[in-house]
């Protein structure tokens, strides 16, 4: 299994990541060629070799051309820089499906955090005109480089954040920036007294959406090393991101065999309950879903003293585990929770809307190796349409499924 280790001892940003991956062997021409598949202009890429506290590293920079800077405040340009426009632009491009997938994952992570902080819908998150080009280039270039390196599993060191403050479009913000901290919930972070922004929202988005696990350098046969330079000079340490690529040599590494990001980690929480009323169990399940659990289920079990009870199982991703645990401890009679991390393989999912004689119905599509392999009309939409039109649930379901199949054939 090919492993990529992100040794972010001085933090991580988008340009540091691209610089490090190129330093480790990704041809810059490949990145430039792939970026040309996006309808972006007014920028140039710069690749320099620089020394950071004695370490020779690749410095990647997106240089905005004067004309693009002049248009910064122009309304028509702003109109194309919402999260939904950027995702649209990526989807419509000729980039490979894996590059699109990785790019969308990173952007989604950042947009969800920005939306929460600024109190707006995700689709409306605004990337500033000049900053948007920089973000798109950093993120898509990272996705191209990760795809090119063909890694199966990504591990990161705990992420240092820095301290102090930064000036951004909103004014003076504390470090870590609100978006960075929001994104990194559930990720092991490291405190740092360096008065610099060591990790940016883009760096945090890359870590959160692309990394499979966290910890020290895994056992591996190293085949490539890269150093990507950050913008500033730190007082006592090189401001670089180090990446290490190699073949996993640990038994666990082989057992984690995966096909890219279809494999992810999921937490499993469990406890047995034999003294709770059924109504309270129903309440607990509902609330756990609201707290972000991926799945919650009860299994009947026989417990000590011949008592019938239930085994509560909660599946949750890293950002929601703590909340789910606290809720189970507070709202159930258990005295403890067992916890484990599992690997899981997941199909990519996409929700599309189809027009039917009962109105628009959302259909969830399961995608495998770039192809739609299953289409499932959304239960809530079918139910609502069936009730509104006094139609049979199965009739509405069948028409939505038929329209979804037709849509695929037409594409
Ligand atoms: O402009 C916006 S919306 C903005 C929001 C935030 C929040 O934390 S909210 C932070 N920043 C700062 O902008 C620079 C650029 O970050 P990149 O990830 O795009 O490199 C960085 O200093 C952020 O902390 C901007
Ligand atoms: Ni913001």
What is the element layout, followed by pairings?
Layout: E1 2-7, H1 14-23, H2 28-35, E2 43-52, E3 55-64, H3 66-70, H4 75-78, H5 83-92, H6 97-118, H7 129-149, E4 153-156, E5 159-160, E6 165-168, E7 171-174, H8 178-183, E8 189-190, H9 201-210, E9 213-214, E10 220-229, E11 240-248, H10 251-255, E12 263-273, H11 278-290, E13 295-303, E14 307-316, H12 318-331, E15 338-345, E16 348-356, E17 359-368, E18 371-377, H13 379-389, H14 393-410
Parallel strand pairs: 1-4, 4-9, 5-8
Antiparallel strand pairs: 1-11, 2-3, 6-7, 10-11, 12-14, 12-15, 13-14, 16-17, 17-18
The chain binds the ligand O=C([S-])c1cc(C(=O)S)c[n+]([C@@H]2O[C@H](COP(=O)(O)O)[C@@H](O)[C@H]2O)c1 and nickel (II) ion.
Keywords:
411 residues; Alpha-Beta Plaits; Ubiquitin-like (UB roll); binds nickel (II) ion; Pyridinium-3,5-bisthiocarboxylic acid mononucleotide nickel insertion protein
Q: Could you characterize the architecture of this molecule?
A:
It catalyses: Ni(II)-pyridinium-3,5-bisthiocarboxylate mononucleotide = pyridinium-3,5-bisthiocarboxylate mononucleotide + Ni(2+). The longest helix has 22 residues, at 97-118. Strands 9-4-1-11-10 form a five-stranded mixed sheet. The protein folds into three domains: 2-258, no CATH class; 262-345, Alpha-Beta Plaits (2-Layer Sandwich), CATH 3.30.70; 348-410, Roll (Ubiquitin-like (UB roll)). The radius of gyration is 24 Å and the shape is globular. It is α+β, with helices and mostly antiparallel strands and 411 residues long. The chain has 14 helices and 18 strands. Residues 13-14, 114, 117, 128, 131, 135, 166, 168-170, 173, 177-179, 197, 200-202 line the site of the ligand O=C([S-])c1cc(C(=O)S)c[n+]([C@@H]2O[C@H](COP(=O)(O)O)[C@@H](O)[C@H]2O)c1. The ligand O=C([S-])c1cc(C(=O)S)c[n+]([C@@H]2O[C@H](COP(=O)(O)O)[C@@H](O)[C@H]2O)c1 binds next to helix 6, helix 7, strand 6, helix 8 and helix 9.
């Amino acid at each position: 299994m090919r492993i990529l280790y992100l040794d972010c001892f001085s933090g991580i940003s988008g340009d540091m990541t691209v610089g490090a991956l190129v330093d480790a062997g990704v041809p810059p021409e490949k990145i430039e060629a792939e970026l040309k598949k996006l309808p972006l202009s007014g920028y140039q890429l710069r690749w320099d070799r620089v020394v950071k506290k004695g370490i020779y590293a690749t410095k990647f920079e997106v240089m905005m051309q004067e004309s693009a800077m002049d248009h910064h405040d122009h309304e028509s340009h702003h109109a194309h820089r919402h999260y939904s426009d950027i995702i649209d632009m990526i989807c419509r491009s000729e980039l490979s499906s894996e590059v699109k997938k990785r790019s969308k994952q990173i952007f989604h992570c950042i947009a969800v955090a920005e939306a929460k902080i600024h109190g707006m819908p995700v689709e409306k998150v605004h990337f500033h005109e000049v900053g948007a080009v920089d973000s798109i280039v950093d993120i898509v270039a990272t996705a191209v480089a990760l795809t090119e390196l063909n890694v199966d599993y990504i591990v990161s060191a705990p992420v240092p954040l820095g301290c102090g403050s930064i000036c951004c479009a909103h004014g003076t913000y504390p470090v870590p920036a609100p978006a960075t901290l929001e994104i990194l919930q559930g990720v092991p972070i490291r405190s740092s007294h360096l008065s610099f922004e060591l990790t940016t929202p883009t760096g945090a988005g890359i870590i959160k959406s692309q990394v499979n696990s966290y910890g020290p350098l895994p056992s591996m046969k190293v085949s490539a090393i890269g150093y990507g330079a950050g913008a500033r000079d730190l007082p006592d340490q090189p401001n670089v991101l180090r990446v290490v690529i190699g073949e996993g040599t640990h038994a666990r590494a082989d057992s984690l065999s995966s096909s890219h990001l279809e494999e992810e980690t999921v937490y499993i929480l469990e406890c047995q309950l034999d003294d709770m009323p059924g109504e309270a169990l129903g309440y607990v399940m509902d609330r756990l879903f609201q707290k972000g659990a991926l799945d919650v289920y009860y299994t009947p079990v026989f417990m000590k003293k011949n008592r019938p009870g239930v085994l509560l199982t909660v599946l949750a991703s890293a950002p929601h585990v703590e909340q789910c645990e606290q809720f189970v401890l507070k709202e159930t009679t258990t005295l403890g929770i067992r916890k484990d991390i599992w690997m899981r393989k997941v199909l990519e999912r996409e929700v599309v809307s189809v027009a039917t004689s009962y109105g628009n119905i959302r259909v969830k599509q399961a995608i495998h190796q770039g192809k739609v392999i299953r289409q499932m009309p959304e239960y809530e939409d079918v139910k609502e349409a069936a009730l509104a039109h006094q139609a049979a649930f199965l009739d509405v379901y069948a028409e939505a499924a038929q329209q979804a199949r037709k849509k695929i054939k037409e594409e």
